[in-house]
User: Fold these one by one.
Assistant:
Number 1:
Amino acid sequence: MPTSHHVSSEPATRASERALEPLLFEPLLKGRAWGGDRLRGLGKRVGLGSRIGESWELADLPDSIPDGRSRIACGLHAGRTLHELLAERGAEIMGMARLSPEGRFPLLIKFLDAAEHLSVQVHPDAAYAANVPNAHLKTEAWIILDAAPGAVLFRGVRGDVSASTFFADLERGDVIQHLVSVPVEPGDCIYLPSGICHALGAGMLVAEVQTPSDTTFRVFDWNRNDPNRPLHIAEARRCMRFGAAQEDGTPGIVRRKTALATESLGLVTRTLAKTKFFTVESIDARGGSELPIVTNGGPVIWCLPTGEAALHGPSGEALRLRHGDTALMPASLRGWIAQFPVSSTLLRITVPTSLDSAIA
């Protein structure tokens, strides 16, 4: 059951006649060989000693992906999938933003608990996705929520390493020396464009924002030799990038300590990632702060790693978010405000709209 509570003071009416409210989803928990049990700290139903690696907070993937579509946890549309609601009220949810080319919500939001190293992996680049059926871009960003002392992740291949050298050494199991090791701290953001080789390191808890794909090619799996986790070397050869081609112009690493911060009305905002697929902002709120929920014509995702938020609508509706909750604010949302009874950190995630394109 969800940990958040929804109430309404409006008279009962058909859901289809009511303005859309903020949408909270039931988490989809995924067992992983590298997972742990720390997602309990984000309010997820994870038993001690479990190996749960991922909690999918907002997902709208194809039917071919098991348990890949989020269901609404409470309110007028409780029990329905996001996909179903998009089919009926997509214009209200998306506004000036577009669905993915496949007709799905354009982002996938997760929490990841890496008790062990994730596999060294790569996702299809644009050329591979354009030429291979059912392969999709997977551009993503990791926002570090917690990291054990000395924890590192791996982002990209050293600039002086060629594809031939990399794959020759991979056959001998001697590939880690070629990866760029990145120490991180809570609040840092790591941007990973499709085609860049990467691995999340042990001892990290992160929020992940990504384009809606589950296409992953394992390059190296730390010699786990698990038959259920095959490698995909041939596919990786076709889409993995090297040298300057690994980057797309967006900063790959944004440190919380040095990110530009703006303060207004007790709220401190930092932009962590601004890409053609999504923008991620971190907002620190003091207890007692208040924030109008503004969508600017497109859907907005609120992910609350710490603290609480009480959301209030113009007609008395209310939704309480607790730490670990993720909510989708439809583009049509009007007149809602959020109050933060305790100091909280909010990740505000938006997708580009036609207005953004006009401004650019």
Number 2:
Amino acid sequence: MITLREVKPGLTVVVDSVKVTGQARVRFMAMGVMKGAQIKVKKVAPLGDPIEVQVKSYNLSFRRAEAEQIVVVPIGAPI
């Protein structure tokens, strides 16, 4: 398993799990970041923070620490 932080720009992944708890988990779910959601990594800043992604039809930015809490599976990878 890999985290969203490790995904290169241009790749699309599927969320396997979200490790955050509490209010942050509610915020992620409100943004559409939940198990089974497809996320496309659009850009990564030169120093790796923030990471811009596309979820559904809108763009979000995650800090590196937040992206490490999202476990993903590359599309087309064996499960």
